[in-house]
Amino acid sequence: MLISGSLILLLMGLLYGWSIIALPLEREFAWTRDKTSLIFVAVMVFFTSGVLAGGPVSKRFSPGVCIRISGFLIFAGFVLASRVDSVWGMCLSYGFLCGLGIGITYNVVLTATLFWFPGKTGLASGFLLGGFGLGSFALGPAVSALINSSMGWRRGFLIIGAVFLVLVFVESFIICKPKEGEIEQESHDSGEGGKNPVERNSSPGEMLGSPFFRRMYLWGTVLSSCTVGILGIGALFASDMGAGYTLAAVMSGFLSIGNGGGRIAFGLVYDRFGRKFSMRTGALFFLSGVTLLIISHFTANLLLVGLGYFFAGLCCGALPPIYSCTCRKYFGPRYFSWNIGLFNSTNIPAVLIGNFAAGILRSKTGSYLPVFGVMAIFSILAFGIEFAMGKAEKNIPGSGSC
């Protein structure tokens, strides 16, 4: 179950490979960076909408049916995207259909699979989300070679859509929720030396009313603005630094390696050391990464670009397991498929700040240096928000030492 879920999310992780796909579009249509950024905004907004929709959809249909529906949405998105020649057409085809399908799959696979690992939420979510984070690294070079070949990106989109449809359809027959009594009851040991904070199952409304969640949401929005911005830049900054299409995809791969590895590592870190350590370490990794990217701007050193992407990617990977573990441990498993969508909705304001606004700033200044400077300030701000969460955490029943 864990392997199948990870493989599906590996495919879905191509979502983060947008910077690779954007290069041939910029070349053919002479689109500026703010225009291609707008398409990524659409992808992330509808991805988040799909994660939110995964809650009610999974209540009506089995995980397999939900995944198959999503597979058809993604296929249709690539097919329609292969026929358009405008930014808005790409937003509605690739952005809306692919983003929505990936978001629903993300929610359904994560929710169904975690039911099998009630006592190892961090470990299981780390492996699942690790697959999602490694998607652009595993698929990026092949996708880049395909869409930049003599075949062209339009035919490449058709092939990618068909491959997605077949593989997702096959895997959809494996993913399912456990039957009653098929797994052991959830342990009350949080794995952090304290009591498991799950003493109630908070509905979405109750969670939204929690000061702890609101501060967590603010922290996630601030840091997600940085991570989503870096994911959208990816191969584009490396290309600005003089890397060719293939090398730019490889540089973007360092970001994906950090993203995928961070998801696995922080799932384990959360189980062992808890929320505070995980959140502070994630912010520190991003600050280190963006500092290296600033230095690389002045030195034109592609090695520093790769290292900067790797450290920033570790923070990108830290956020999803922190979200899923915090959501389940503090607000319970009953409404997890609904509540996790609310946690992930930080992507909507984040993509507007971190990608669309960053694209405009890059187009106006001709450089990513101001963008990196704002990201460094945001990552420092995240530390302050996390420290302010301690008082609100104490008001959650059984919060223990998390």
Automatic annotation (TrEMBL):
Residues 184-203 are annotated as: Disordered. The keyword Amino-acid biosynthesis does not apply. Keywords: Membrane, Transmembrane, Transmembrane helix. Residues 1-394 form the Major facilitator superfamily (MFS) profile domain. It comes from the Bacteria. The chain crosses the membrane at residues 7-25, 37-58, 65-82, 94-117, 124-147, 153-176, 217-238, 244-270, 282-300, 306-323, 335-361, 367-389. Gene3D superfamilies: MFS general substrate transporter like domains (1.20.1250.20). SUPFAM superfamilies: MFS general substrate transporter. One of its GO terms (molecular function) is transmembrane transporter activity. This is Transporter, major facilitator family.
